[in-house]
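In practice, a research group might receive sequence data for several interacting partners and want a quick structural hypothesis before committing to experiments. The following worked case mirrors that situation: the sequences arrive first, and a predicted assembly follows.
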Amino acid sequence: MTTTNPTPTADTFGMYTVGAPIADTKAPTTVPIDKMWTTRKFDAKLVNPSNRRKLTVIIVGTGLAGAAAAASLGEAGYNVQVFFYQDSARRAHSIAAQGGINAAKNYNGDGDSVYRLFYDTVKGGDYRARETNVYRLAEVSANIIDQCVAQGVPFAREYAGLLDNRSFGGTQVARTFYAAGQTGQQLLIGAYQALERQVAKGTVQEFKRHEMLELIVVDGRARGIVARNMVTGELETHLADAVVLASGGYGNVFFLSTNAMGCNVTATWRAHRKGAYFGNPCYTQIHPTCIPVAGDYQSKLTLMSESLRNDGRIWVPKRAEDCDKDPRQIPEEDRDYYLERIYPAFGNLVPRDIASRQAKNVCDEGRGVGPKVGDFRRGVYLDFAESIQRLGRAAIEEKYGNLFDMYAQITGESPYEVPMRIYPAVHYTMGGLWVDYDLQTSITGLYAAGEANFSDHGANRLGASSLMQCLGDGYFVLPNTIRDYLANGPFPKVAADAPEVTGALAAAQSRIDRLMAVNGERTVDSFHKELGHIMWEYCGMERTEEGLLKAIGLIRSLREEFWRNVRVLGSADTLNQSLERAGRVADFLELGELMCIDALHRRESCGGHFRAESQTDDGEALRHDDQFLYVAAWEFAGGGDGVVGTPVLHKEDLVYKSIELKQRSYK
Amino acid sequence: MNLTLNIWRQDGPNAQGRMVTYQLADVSEHMSFLEMLDVLNEQLVEKGEEPIAFDSDCREGICGMCGLMINGKAHGPEVTTTCQLHMRSFNDGDTITVEPWRATAFPVLRDLVVDRSAFDRIIQAGGFISVNTGAAPEAHSVPVPKPKADRAFESAKCIGCGACVAACPNAAGMLFMGAKVTHLGELPQGQPERWARVVKMVAQHDHEGFGGCTNTGACADVCPKEIPLDVINQLNKDLRASMSKRA
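A structural hypothesis for the assembly, expressed as tokens:
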């Protein structure tokens, strides 16, 4: 990381200050892009095998990135400790990914290549990702498939026994490997088994039902964590030579999302508070095909694979008064197949961000369908009647049977009989901790991998790319880059009573004590739901300056009320799920504000987010490369619990040497 | 609908547990079973009572974190995970009994939360293919006949929830273990370690305090991923074969 020209200037609203720009210094940009990774791997220092066991690496999270990194570093002979909040490493939320994993194998001979995968990923991310990282991702993608097959991941195969591929997410080549609708599960089980093998060998030690609550930084280096044993309530300090955060995304700031109930931002937010810059926090992905909200009690939203858009037609009634009718009784001429109408070339297969925003638009117009939640019906039809008529029910059943069953189980309606109802939901967060080419954050010795970092997807992630990135980071990137740092170790032993250690422990303890002591009137979930509502309303698919300013005010007062009025019962020295949630919601209440500030400052429509003040004459997203061709890396400048201060913006200019900048158009 | 709930409460691993009765009104049939418990918990907190601890995470039937005995049946009346069970499977006025998984190998930690670490240790004993990162050959160098790949996948769908153990009168973990042995044993990549794997996994299984299989089939009846009973036949077949192969 380099810093130059430190001339802070305040923004119009006094919400943030501007600090020195930053840049990645690890990618060897003097060589052509297709030689960079090889060069970096060669230049990165080696650690003698006999020294590796003297080096300890802490990894937080056992999803695809964390489990893959932990297994690989364990195999290499490092002393690895992994921490996760679930009861088994196999349960991390990577397990829920349905569709598939991209890799530039070109098994179909349809013109795929490393460059094309790189090109599609940068373009899909709307030119807001760092090209050197993305190129490397495309480069390692093929190795991922080899590794997984060798582990016994049962990918779908053709009758000749070779691997089957499908086209996914609007790409023109078939490069997606899959295992029915359970690809994430199969990949994670593969990584989990590799991890358990190392546990048996003694290279990896697991800390299950443990939640990281603080990062320990000594002399500017990440040297350990404070974790809470969620069964006994005990706070523990764990010291190491390096720390890797592979703790996933922060979609649950919206309360309702497709994330698991436990997904949270605490690990990365605590690191952010200790000096790790947070990159592009406002970049969230809203997935267009989820089952709509049914009532106030709803705890999560369920994704329906977007492959359904290949055969389903999306529509709403032309007239609001038809919206509560049985859809089968609404004649063709009274239906608005709005995606086919607005985007005749791509129709129902427009990218995720566009499909999502148009669904919101028609519902805002009062033409949504399904039950009213609040004042609006939030749903559109995804209709298979025509496909069933054309291809036969059996063909549709073979393709989508498990999804239709899942839908019927949740809603009680059969998609074979009545059109599905779908609505966009928060699915993925492209933002995350800022990292360099080595995946090192702005804190020396602290690394971030997988969804927890900001790196490869720019402002919009393509389908089947998150599994690729997580496994690329975990198996191939991190084990090669972290050795360059570890080769400088072992670092001086940190004493258990060093002030940085006792300070971090005391901070975690005091936050817990404070949460337990408030004893107010409102449940943790009621705060979380209210925060989620604010975020969804003002920092969701469409954002305006006015709305974001309002949201920031609302979040500030909600956070103030939280610390005065939350109710956490029971005791802190037992398994206490209210306390766990309270700590996570406290961090979401801080993150939410930063997301709104980031969204406020980025006065352009880009990728997954639409800024109302930045659109073309016909209402399409308008990017501003002249002003916003950079990564926004935010530095924390606040104080104690609930005090977020005025964040400092560091810009990393994005330089595209290997790909031409273009505006996306799907019309 | 209005419900009467009898729920197991237990303060900690060594505490004495007890059934506690709760009344819950205005339950929507569209709620999932766990959302119904969320609503009950919100009401308990508002009344100043400690909420009921239960495990859940993905709430879309794939992570395997949730699992409750509902009216004596693992995951309740439908063949699905507890998180995918919806209240439309119940009727107004019903009394529902909710208990944790009950098995020696799955000790209760609190209320409805149990410790399933024994499953991890069975995998550690041999439920993997030993290949280091970077040591893999090109993926297409070994074709896998589709029927074998498909059977491997069907077995690999296991989510490790433990319903099979909870449902089994002997608290055996044989369906779980058979699924893994079948998954890896069907694939060419899994052959070199096949015979050693089954022996080590079975030894760990027995060491953990799981019971033996007496072919009641109760496990396959409740398996939310519908893992077929024949994976246990495969397990036994491989175990027998391993005696001669390893000699």
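Before designing any experiment, note the following. The domain at 116-245 of chain B is CATH 1.10.1060.10 (Fumarate Reductase Iron-sulfur Protein; Chain B, domain 2). The radius of gyration of chain B is 20 Å.
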